[in-house]
């Protein structure tokens, strides 16, 4: 598992800055099954609940396979926060889900599709029920990335939101606790996060 593609925790207890692409199984191997976490019952419990949370999207994909025509509802999942650190027993799993807007739109108003709203409506409810603190980014394909004049307001909004969370998951609060909110002092990228491919 620990090679160029799969990061190792640094002495600070985080992955080196950057986004690391892994499968769900590889994420589990790094964050749950690794030897350093053998004594943590919390990580295994959180991961199981997280998979249940993600399973609700998969159930919709199975239910509306013909309508979706091979598209997945979840483009990627970004995992960050204390779960992506050496902390033995994190409180929850912080996750940013990139939801394919075209796939989502195609099944809206069908039975069961209210999950696509409920899944992000209350982070506190999701934390209590599934141990996950989710954030949604509407994923969209944008062909003209280098031609700003051709970007729609929705395209620009997508890039802005994606950039915000890419930046956020590489930050870390100051160790002395002097920045409970984001601050200029803690704005530099100091840790990495995982991008999970389903």
Can you walk through the features of this model?
The chain is of the alpha/beta class. The protein has 7 helices and 5 strands; from the N terminus they run E-H-H-H-E-E-H-H-H-E-H-E. It has helices at 24-31, 41-63, 65-68, 101-107, 115-121, 123-130, 153-168; strands at residues 18-23, 74-80, 93-100, 132-139, 192-197. The protein has a 5-stranded mixed β-sheet. The longest helix is centred in the N-terminal third of the chain and has 23 residues, at 41-63. It is globular and about 45 Å long. The chain starts with 17 loop residues before the first strand and ends with a strand.
Core attributes:
198 residues; alpha/beta; five-stranded mixed β-sheet; 7 helices; 5 strands; globular
Please outline the helices and strands.
Layout: E1 18-23, H1 24-31, H2 41-63, H3 65-68, E2 74-80, E3 93-100, H4 101-107, H5 115-121, H6 123-130, E4 132-139, H7 153-168, E5 192-197
Parallel strand pairs: 1-5, 3-4
Antiparallel strand pairs: 2-3, 2-5
Mean pLDDT equals 93
The total strand number stands at 5
Instruction: Specify the biggest β-sheet.
Output: 5 strands, mixed
Ranges where pLDDT stays below 50 over 5 or more residues in a row are none
Strand arrangement, largest sheet?
1-5-2-3-4
In short:
By secondary structure, the chain is α/β, with parallel strands linked by helices. The protein contains 7 helices and 5 strands.
């Amino acid at each position: 598992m620990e090679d160029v593609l799969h990061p190792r925790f640094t002495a600070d207890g985080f992955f080196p800055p950057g986004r690391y692409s892994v499968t769900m199984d590889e994420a589990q191997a790094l964050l749950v099954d690794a030897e350093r976490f053998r004594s943590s019952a919390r990580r295994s419990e959180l991961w199981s609940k997280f998979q249940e949370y993600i399973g609700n999207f998969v159930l919709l994909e199975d239910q509306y396979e013909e309508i979706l025509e091979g598209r997945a509802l979840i483009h990627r999942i970004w995992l960050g926060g204390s779960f992506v650190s050496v902390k033995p027993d994190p409180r929850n799993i912080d996750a940013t889900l990139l939801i394919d807007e075209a796939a989502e739109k195609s099944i809206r108003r069908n039975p069961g599709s209210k999950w696509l709203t409920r899944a992000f409506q209350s982070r506190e409810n999701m934390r209590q029920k599934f141990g996950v603190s989710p954030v949604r980014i509407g994923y969209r394909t944008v062909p003209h990335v280098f031609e700003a004049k051709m970007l729609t307001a929705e395209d620009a909004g997508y890039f802005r939101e994606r950039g915000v969370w890419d930046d956020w998951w590489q930050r870390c609060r100051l160790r002395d606790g002097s920045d409970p909110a984001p601050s200029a002092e803690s704005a530099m990228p100091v840790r990495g996060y995982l991008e999970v491919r389903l």
